[in-house]
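S., here's the first fold you wanted:
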Amino acid sequence: MNQEVKAKWIAALESGEWVCVKEKMAEEDTNGRCCLGVLTEVYFKENGISPDNVRYDGMSIYWDITPSPDPEYDDEWGADSQSFEDQVDPKIAKWAGLDDEIQSELAAANDARGEYPIDRIREL
């Protein structure tokens, strides 16, 4: 895992800004995020993604990183970019250095305990 990203992720998890939620990426009304949802929010902050370009549907986080003036244009990110349930968007996974197996493990620990698996994240 990218150690700089890990430090920022742990700081965000410990900040008290987010409420831990289970079995979903985000819960907008309560400012709830699972551990991977918080990682997604760290990515947004680090990459200057405006909250205006983000939407939540109760399970997932969607965003359009570079809205195109041409609605027919579909770049790599486009409107289909998302972090959902137990996986972040592949670009975020690559940025953080997390593989699918670790993401699933962290999501399962988050859901089982109802709290962020910070100790396990520190080990990465």
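And the second, which I think is the more interesting of the pair:
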Amino acid sequence: MDLAKEKGMKTTKEGLLHFNTGKFTGRSPKDRYFAQSEYVDKIIDFNRDINQKVKRDSFLSLKEEMVKYLEDKKTLRSRKVAGYSYEHAASFNITSTEPWAIIFFNNMLVDPQSFVMNHSRTSYSKYIHGRYDCSSFSL
């Protein structure tokens, strides 16, 4: 909770968490990026403007830089599951410097205690830092 307090999170008199997510927390129209692969090319409709392709090398480079950048930062972590059936389950490991992002994902995904993680066929990692500038990467 120390990081949450540092980020301005407060508790209301009713005991609810309250925080300001900042000016730019909404999704932009073209902010869904997918690393190119045979699988992604089959399941993602790239004819829709919202879905953007990223070269695999660019994705791996950005991921490596983001993980390194977060190494010395205070972060929060969460592990959750999306998709409640075995056929559609995917586990997510979330690392963020922003408490609101962890709460957001925790509210959207299923607690692994209510779903056996070993049944998840797909696993993802998500790294969030509200002030990380990745504009130097080419897509």
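Why I say that: The chain has a mean pLDDT of 76. The beta strands are 10-11, 17-18, 32-35, 51-54, 76-82, 90-96, 122-128.

Talk tomorrow,
H.
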